[in-house]
Amino acid sequence: MNPVEQSNRKAGSRFSARRLVLLGTTILSLGAAALVVSPTVSSNFALAQNVTQQAQSVARPTGFADIVDTIKPAVISVRVQIGKSDATLSSNEESNNPFPPGSPMERFFRRFGGQGGDMPQFGGRQQRGPVTGQGSGFFISADGFAVTNNHVVENADKVEIKTDDGKSYTAKVVGTDPRTDLALIKVDGRTDFPFAKLGTTAPRIGDWVLAVGNPFGLGGTVTAGIVSARGRDIGAGPYDDFLQIDAPVNKGNSGGPTFNVDGQVVGVNTAIYSPSGGSVGIAFAIPAATVETVIAQLKEHGSVTRGWIGVQIQPVTQDIADSLGLKSTQGALVAEPQSGSPAAKAGVESGDVIAKVNGKDVKDARDLAKMIASMSPNASVKLDIVRKGATKTLTVTLGELPKTREARADTGDSEEGANIGRLGLTLAPDDRSSGKDGVVVAEVDPRGVAADHGVKSGDVILEVAGKSVSSPADVRRAVADARTGGKRTVLMRVKSGDNSRFVALPLGRA
After folding, report:
1. Taking Cα atoms as reference points, which of 213, 211, 199, 206 lies closest to residue 262?
2. pLDDT tens profile 407-427
3. Domain boundaries in the chain?
């Protein structure tokens, strides 16, 4: 190798070595940089982890398992038997109608429960042997008192309940209240049943709720949702004041409780809106405040008594408010006080607007009915009324709201009384126009055939079977004659306001 080649090789070696050093320096520099930034990256990673965990803890529901463990043992499945040897199963039952014929909720279900909002009428296939039905309920005391729906146990010859631990017991019906669709049953033999407490505070719209019950006979089923609305009127009766919830409720959930997240009962499930017969997320529950009042009376007396003032009332429309010089449409307009009623004795007159009861504002006619019915007979009540632009206060001693059965019992002839009672009418003489015949409809049972055909409280019956009537006895007699003559319907001419119409009431269900 010549000197020049040797010189070039040495230079190349030095360049290569220099390149390696530079490359090595770069690697070491990157390594040093990595060592420098590593604590920051670690800190950021830990921070990101913490933020993610916090976000997950906010976004993820905590679940209801702990609440369910506490409340579920108090809920029972209710099975009833109606001991008819030749029972008729209706087309409604075949169409998943959860309510028996004549129950307070059956008309509502017939309006909204079937396909297209209409359900077939009763009277279907025959079934030999007893009819059975299922529902839900819950214990309210350790000694075996339990709440369910009236339509679950109505007409039952035998009631059997099954607890969450799978044990079965026979129960007896202590009392029922068809107007609110509530019933109280009792299981004897134990004093250590797990029980639920009724809530003392009304839930707010949007609050979480849990429905527990026996849908389709499955037993012990829990569903969750929220309170969708309050104060719903679904046309089931004069005291409608339902909670609407979107927790799935189905056939068999009737009578079961709706709990809040504190484990308190805020309602009793009683009806659903369903075009298909199954849950669509609209269910109705009787508020706990109503349950507490009704159940207390059922436990003490076996029945419910309600206050009554005896007035025919109607809403205050904007036109009526303008004509009376009222500033708003609040209040209830008295169409007519019934003769001899507590209101008439206290001086209430036709055309008065009842604005307050014991100082509390009356929203409308329905609100007045609920307020008075929630009070006890013989209680003294102050009514603030507006009469011809002036406000005055009247004191009324409440009577007892007439019951259809009581009206039957007072007729003397049980067969005649039963005719009117089963038509669902409580009648009073029409004293409004002297010299004119007519009988006032004082009350209409929402379960009766008269209500099904549009007869309302305050209507006047002018004729029955082509004969003028002037007393409840005339109506009873005409209906009895129609039945004796083998008639299947009785034709009545009924006056509503200024309009008269003929109404044919079936006697088959009467």
Report:
1. 199
2. 222 333 333 333 355 688 888
3. 1-60, 62-304, 307-400, 404-506
